[in-house]
Prior knowledge:
Elements: E1 3-4, H1 18-27, E2 32-38, H2 51-64, E3 70-78, E4 90-94, E5 97-99, E6 105-107, H3 112-122, H4 125-142, E7 147-148, H5 169-185, E8 188-192, H6 208-216, E9 221-224, H7 237-246, E10 251-256, E11 259-264
Parallel strand pairs: 1-2, 2-3, 3-4, 4-7, 7-8, 8-9
Antiparallel strand pairs: 5-6, 10-11
Amino acid sequence: MLCSLHTHSLLCDGQSTLEQMAEAATAQGLSALGFSGHAPAPYDHAAMRDPEAYLREIARLKHAFSGRIALYAGMEIDALCPFDRSRLDYCIGSVHYIRDNRGIIHCIESTPERFERAVRALGSARAVVERYCDTVEQHLYDFRPDIAGHLDIIAKLNTAGRFFDTDSSWYRRAEQRLAHAAAAGGCAVEVNTAGLRLPSRRAVYPSVHILTLLRQNKVPVVITSDAHRACDLTAGFEQARALLRDLGFCCALTMDGGKLKPCAL
């Protein structure tokens, strides 16, 4: 069963309507599609402004596409602005922002310039990474989302080691913290193929090292595309499956009957 659960539409920072996403998912033969617009957050330009309109449109589409594809109402919820999940079918918990010691919020994955501002505020790139790990840990332990989003997105802008050495012992320990947080938080971790579409990365989130740790700790994974366009709903899925099989995973989760269930790779 093929599903796509990390998607964004014109109601946040995507480029397709929810209905265009549903039509594309049906045409691509998906059994399920989850909408996961960025939940409202006052500091986030990508966040949706009208969650009620978002939920109403999903309810309409669930009825309109009944019998063709299963549709689910989700949100990607940022750690610094928890959102009431009671009306959602599932949620993705992500960290896009961190707070410095003065309480100022910094985006750590949009532009190198904004990352550099966080480095200046916290004193070093290592301090930024450590604060990111702190934020992930608190989010996964306290909020307990169904799925942990792009677990090592802190490295998104670190092209060619621009800010830190991903092979350093301290960064390896940071990756271990992230994997442990997912295991202790009891959530699934997405294998997010958006990184494959970035010329600066060409790899999934999270790293092979983190994925290996997740497998060793029996943390379930779900393949997602983080699609901002209808044409990207399953982009990179075959590559992600092949990677997971190479790393010793035998299954990934899919949405079936409103529940995340294992499906053989």
